[in-house]
Amino acid sequence: MRSIFRRLDDKSGQIGVFRGPEGLAVAQICASVTASKPTLIYCEFEPDQDADTLPRLARRLPNRRLPATTVLPSGAYHMLLVEAPQVPGDELLGAVRWRIKDLIDFHIDDAVIDVFQMPNQSRGGPDRMMYAVVAKATDVRAEVTAAETAGLNLDAIEIVELSLRNIAARLEEDGRGVAFLYLAETSGVLLLVRQGVLYLTRHIETGVDSLRDADGLRSELVAGLALETRRSLDYFESHYEQQAIAVLHTVGLTASDQDQMARELGVSVRNVELAALVESAAELDEHAQRLCLPAIGAALRHDKVKL
Prior knowledge:
By secondary structure, this protein is of the alpha/beta class. Helices cover 29% and strands 31% of the residues.
């Protein structure tokens, strides 16, 4: 169990919950109009995920009446890139539902759907595109039930990509553009974000376990990460006519991995430093930060996916 905990009489903020393959993370952010950065007043990770884990962590929250956002595990939803239907706003979800019914592995009547739009491409691209987020209704209901059972005030259900977008949007390079590579246990996600807007996301088949178990092939796996990142950076620059991104922020890579990525990409590669984004009662080491980051991102949420 890893935790930082400081009881404050906070009046505003949010709670983030992330149930990933490695365990359950809960974070609470206190917002203040006078502070330059929000404050992380509670963050805890439990590797065990029995029925009492979330209620137990929720009881330790400084203020569990705050709005809470729970993050769906990556395997609990599909994220599909589709052409935006040319229909009135109140007909959008229905039109998207019809378009994606053959792209998912369960019946469309059992699906919960939301969408968010991508920026317009600057040249030669297709019509306006959007991401459709599709989850099974049973999985969504399970998250709602778990939050309610724990006594949380569930406000929204988030996805991993958008919770990490909330982290990327607070990095100092966001004005020009941020590349963010996050590695979980067996897979990862690459995000390209500018001014808080998600331009591109890629699923990565490599995770921290893959790198650890690769032995002599680790360099090849890192080279594959660099290639995927380079393709994404080139797409960002050419299709959106954006400036070249000069820094890749990572979570889950060793210093030697970062050095190799920097050589192959020709950009600076550095760890995401949580202390630069939020005030905290204590420091999280790199391992704990990786485990908790989606929950912290959810607690920093400004918009929502209404699954």
